[in-house]
Every structure is written in C-alpha cells, then in structure tokens.
Structure prediction request, 141 residues.
Amino acid sequence: MSVDVLYETRARATGGRDGVAETLSGSFKVSLSTPKELGGAGGNGNNPEELFAAGYAACFIGAMKFVGGQENIAVPADTSITSTVGIGPRSAGGFGLTVALEVSLPGVEKSAAEDLVAKAHQVCPYSNATRGNIDVKLTVV
Prediction:
C-alpha cells in the first residue's frame, strides 16, 4: 500500500525508556522514565505508552471530525477520548500492547455516535497502523 505523504515529522529518543525524546524541530521535548510495573524506578518522566495513548486519542478525534465533515455530522467541541494503553508479555513471546478508547460525544445520540466512531476507526491512521496487530476496544460513553 502506498501513502501520499502530506506531512512528516522527525523525533529522536536518547537513553531509551529512561532518557529523553524530542522532535528535531525543537517544538517538543519530554523526559522519559520507566514505570515501576515494568521494573523501572518510576519518576516524573513520561513513558512511550503515555505518549501513544495521548497521540491516538487526539488523532482519533481528528478522524471523527473528518468523517463528520463528510457526513454533515457536527462533532461537539467538548468531544473527548480517554485512551488506555496496556503493555505486557505476549504468549507468543516478546511484549504487546492493548488499547481501549472511551469516546465521549456530548449531545450526540448514542447510535449515531457509535456509527461515527466505527467509521472514524476505518480512516484514523493510528487505527490503520494498529489493525491486526493490537486489540483496540472502542466504547461510546
């Protein structure tokens, strides 16, 4: 499958889960720390799963707005997504991720919201990247 790239960004991580990650443009920089649950010291830094959870949630709202625009469905300004990303050992070896997206579309009838979420899941680039690789649970709350 080919992609007609309209935008790309570059980031660099140094030191792994206990290092630093930043965009090469200088617009974003974050300290990283490994959670105690994964054998780390914890700390004030973020971890890749937190960054992925935030990015997926934001991107999915963008996908809902895209679909809404195509179908004349107004996506409320106070739409929010709570994204839960889990990490742990896979039965086949190595580590894997799980994702749950809890979508809040205030004022949108539940069946219409569920339809919008299902369609957004087909166009969201994060959903397309994870499809078949990560279990993603979608819930309209």
Remarks:
- DSSP finds three helices and six strands in the chain.
- The chain has a mean pLDDT of 96.
- Residues 8 and 23 are 11 Å apart (CA to CA).
